[in-house]
Inverse folding.
């Protein structure tokens, strides 16, 4: 791989992933992870090491990206902090547990499970399209804690932020309007990613074959190139999100979920 071409690819990947993050309240790992995996393996890295490094680095990039997106959504009044905070606290624990488990569970099993589940949720999202600015939102602290914990586990296991599952859960189970589900998801993913990244740093500490300037399974050089573009791009995505109706945003989100699910099935 041309050493000049690699940062260019990462730069444009960050722009797209950051816009996706702000628009849909997801981490952008569905794009960043496969691109990093391809770049690492193209340079001759072992596929298992490349997978874990791509997961850990993507999750690290998600943290500042989601902070940028959540703050922008907050300005639009689209973050329900009473839900985001308990889910986020539980997601820290879940993300850490998922990150540890990812060192032991076969990757193809994770991708198959996640792909099937996300395709089912995409179909449910299309069947459950609603247009309302003030839906009757439900949920208790206990339910938010349980939801956050499992979203955190999936975040750590798959290297994704978890928003691709959290947004439909908020819409379908908790009755959130689409814009508030996206904004609340953005805030929650800050916490889940922190827990997962901690696990990837610990489990990758001292592993042979890591790139220079790595902390565990987090490649700091790749992190810097991606983050410098995802952070401002997330705010662009938020503007796009709030220029769309809830119905159109939900349709776009369902399409994104189908694309993620199919790409994961192909890679199994």
């Amino acid at each position: 791989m041309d050493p000049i071409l690699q940062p260019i690819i990462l730069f444009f990947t960050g722009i797209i992933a950051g816009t996706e993050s702000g628009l849909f309240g997801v981490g952008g790992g569905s794009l960043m992870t496969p691109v990093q995996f391809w770049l690492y393996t193209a340079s001759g890295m072992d596929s298992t090491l490349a997978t874990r490094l791509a997961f850990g680095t993507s999750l690290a990039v998600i943290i500042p990206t989601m902070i940028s997106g959540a703050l922008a959504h907050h300005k639009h009044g689209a973050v329900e902090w009473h839900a985001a905070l308990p889910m986020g606290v539980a997601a820290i624990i879940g993300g850490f547990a998922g990150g540890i488990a990812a060192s032991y569970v076969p990757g193809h099993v994770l991708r198959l499970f996640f792909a099937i589940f996300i395709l089912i949720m995409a179909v449910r999202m299309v069947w459950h399209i609603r247009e309302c600015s003030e839906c009757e939102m439900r949920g208790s602290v206990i339910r938010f804690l349980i939801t956050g914990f499992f979203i955190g586990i999936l975040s750590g296991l798959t290297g994704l932020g978890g928003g691709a599952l959290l947004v439909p859960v908020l819409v379908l189970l908790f009755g959130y309007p689409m814009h508030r589900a996206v904004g609340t998801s953005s805030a929650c993913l800050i916490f889940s990613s922190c827990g997962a990244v901690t696990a990837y740093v610990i489990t990758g500490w001292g592993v042979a074959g890591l790139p220079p300037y790595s902390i565990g399974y987090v490649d700091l050089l790749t992190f810097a190139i991606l983050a410098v573009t995802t952070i401002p791009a997330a705010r662009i995505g938020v503007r796009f999100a709030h220029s769309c109706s809830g119905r159109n945003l939900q349709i776009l989100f369902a399409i994104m979920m189908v694309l993620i699910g199919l790409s994961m099935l192909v890679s199994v």
In short: The chain has one domain: 5-267.
